[in-house]
Amino acid sequence: xxxxxxxxxxxxxxxxxxxxxxxxxxxxxxxxxxxxxxxxxxxxxxxxxxxxxxxxxxxxxxxxxxxxxxxxxxxxxxxxxxxxxxxxxxxxxxxxxxxxxxxxxxxxxxxxxxxxxxxxxxxxxxxxxxxxxxxxxxxxxxxxxxxxxxxxxxxxxxxxxxxxxxxxxxxxxxxxxxxxxxxxxxxxxxxxxxxxxxxxxxxxxxxxxxxxxxxxxxxxxxxxxxxxxxxxxxxxxxxxxxxxxxxxxxxxxxxxxxxxxxxxxxxxxxxxxxxxxxxxxxxxxxxxxxxxxxxxxxxxxxxxxxxxxxxxxxxxxxxxxxxxxxxxxxxxxxxxxxxxxxxxxxxxxxxxxxxxxxxxxxxxxxxxxxxxxxxxxxxxxxxxxxxxxxxxxxxxxxxxxxxxxxxxxxxxxxxxxxxxxxxxxxxxxxxxxxxxxxxxxxxxxxxxxxxxxx
Length: 454
Ligand SMILES: [Zn+2]
What we know:
- The chain is α+β, with helices and mostly antiparallel strands and 454 residues long.
- The protein folds into three domains: 22-26 and 156-259 and 398-439, Nuclear Transport Factor 2, Chain: A (Roll); 58-152, Nuclear Transport Factor 2, Chain: A (Roll), CATH 3.10.450; 270-387, Glucose Permease (Domain IIA), CATH 2.70.70.
- The chain has helices spanning 7-14, 34-38, 78-81, 89-98, 170-176, 181-191, 401-417; strands at 56-57, 60-61, 66-71, 113-118, 127-131, 136-141, 147-152, 156-165, 205-215, 218-231, 235-242, 247-250, 270-273, 293-296, 302-304, 309-317, 321-327, 332-339, 341-342, 351-352, 357-360, 371-378, 381-383, 432-440.
- Strands 13, 14, 16, 17, 18, 20, 22 and 23 form an eight-stranded antiparallel β-sheet that branches. A six-stranded antiparallel β-sheet has the order 12-11-10-9-8-24, sandwiched between helices.
- β10 (218-231) and β11 (235-242) form a beta hairpin.
- It is globular, with a radius of gyration of 28 Å.
- The model is unreliable at 1-47, 424-430 and 440-454 (pLDDT under 50).
- The chain binds zinc ion.
């Protein structure tokens, strides 16, 4: 039956922002600077002067061009800015026409950066550069015939490692630390079949190897997770491998970590009430069996189908609130209660994939706090899914194992160099963290096709 987040859980939620859960020790070795790649830091500074290499921004040589950057103000238009920079209204209207197919100047928004490029600081604007997001910029060349070009910013990919130890739950850790959500989410994806994350406990350790994308020295996106290690009462590994036949995460023996059923339907959650045939119901104030497992999570957290299946019911009852029941095979059904709403397209007969979002965490029906009451039905009876054992899949084909083992060694060699994290007695936001430069786009060279190069 429905179960909410009762008092102690509420207190726990309240203490989220005061408790620091992860012990993090930063040992950043990331090689981001160009200089640190080219010069040896142990060397004294060169005594003989060498001409400085030209510095480029947006592909413009700063020795030859004068760049004026501004942040677009609310209700500020190009027609307010450009006439002061020697551009007439006829050109602006031509620019509006010519930019339609690439990146229309009508899409300019307040709060974004705009740069005016001139070869003579007192002369007229020759180019405009608009930055719609962290990843790209758009160059509007006003010289001769107007051209517009969207350019991907040069970026650097670092292979990074990180380790942490839980002081309470992963869910708490997420809220209290500065770890990128995407990284923990990727870890849950990789290990979510073998590690029961909502039951993560104090002392659990994890180590991750992943790519991080940097632009202008700032981390902008978490890339692929290459390997994950998690230690609770057992050691769990998920190593990424890909060839023509396989793609995904594998354990040390080359078995896919993926199983037919996910351990839990919500990420970043914790178990607020277990399957219990003798439970005292907090709302009904009497003993009433709890046939489900309650996962408390933030309002509107996505709820995932734990396995491929078909929607049998997507409906509302007074007790269940908005709920979905899926059929997976002739024996097994799963049920998810108290949703705020269903995901788009979820109705009777819809086919869903494992991990697909079917609804969002709410407290509709008989519930006091935000959670999903998850029910696992086997042959028409509700069972405790946390006690079920699903057979591990077969290892990959023998022919593919040598390639997998060599990849495995490569990733394990890195994981094994990551020092064990330690629980800190002092509250601090620290993880063991390091990185190494993997690839870099043309950081050293100006874009050869830049409109600014003469
Ligand atoms: Zn429940």
